[in-house]
Design goal:
- The protein has about 60 residues and is an alpha+beta fold.
- The chain has 1 helix and 3 strands.
- A 3-stranded antiparallel beta sheet has the order 1-3-2, with helices on one face.
- The chain is elongated.
- The chain starts with a strand and ends in a 5-residue tail after the last strand.
Length: about 60
Amino acid sequence: MKFRLEVDLDDTASAEDSARELGRILRYWGGNLHHYALEPGDGSAVHDSGHREVGRWSIVSADGS
């Protein structure tokens, strides 16, 4: 299986703010993955600290489908 995470960062934010926000997103979703079976097709929207949808994570088969 493959774990995919795609996050669109705010182009106007500083590098420090972007790194802080991405770190928060990774900590949050890393801590919540145990709620999922982690099988192809699993996934969820990813939200930033302002509760705006900024991306998605998903599980796909090893061949990428």
